[in-house]
Amino acid sequence: MVTDPADPRLADYVGLRDAELRRPDRGWFIAEGRLVIEQLVRSAYPVRSVLLTPARRAAAARLLASVEAPIYLAEPGVLNAVAGFDLHRGMLASADRLPLPSVASVLAGAREAAGAREVAGARVLTRARVVAVVEGVNDHENLGSLFRNAAAFGVGAVVLDPTCCDPLYRRSVRVSMGHVLRVPFARASDWPGELGRMRSDGWRLVALTPLPTAEPLERLRADERPVALILGAEGPGLSAGALALAEERVRIPLAEGVDSLNVATAAALAFHHLRP
Description:
Blueprint: E1 28-32, H1 34-42, E2 47-52, H2 54-57, H3 61-65, E3 71-73, H4 76-83, E4 91-96, H5 103-111, E5 116-119, E6 122-125, E7 130-135, H6 140-152, E8 158-160, H7 170-175, E9 185-187, H8 193-200, E10 204-208, E11 215-216, E12 227-232, H9 240-245, E13 248-251, H10 263-274
Parallel strand pairs: 2-3, 7-8, 7-12, 8-9, 10-12, 10-13, 11-13
Antiparallel strand pairs: 1-4, 2-4, 5-6
């Protein structure tokens, strides 16, 4: 039982709302809540420690039995003092970040399911594999929701532009229900140049945009090529550079007076339409 909020064993959990303490270069991230921590334990990310209240211990007993890292108990008052706010879920875990893979490697992994196969001697086209390419999304909850939707509809990977926020920030991990730990992701350093390389490498670049000149989403049909769905932030939308590199532009028809959808909601509709 840890009784002192200043106990150095709890250093990973100090100031959970302090963005400076949550920078990716710190080397670890926080998972919050039992369901999210279950996803963490099943993932490749190494657990550093778990911190929970005594009241949560019994409900999490089976989960904790599979954790090899230190497990610390603290009363709610101590846990809240460490975190810096009233933490209702009463269970946290710290995990090491993994080195970010290259864009090329996550695209190659996603592409393995694309193309064609032989069935009874005949060449049969398989459904094109889909990846999400995200530009300028800097709201952690929107990004977490987008990752949850990507996992739900079998999206093979997520490519982030340099300005997107950290998908392993606590709120993103929580809102994704831990699915951000399942979906491979990489961050492009050259933007929008990475889109040009993807296009040259055979990806079908499809921009999702509310522009009235775009084709309705329901008209988009799969072909042999894997699809890269380009998504932009609410408000500014996709940049001119990203739109220029897209081969196709599609929109989700909306009722009069509604100009756009939340980016995660729009992504879910498009992922469902393109699902493998």
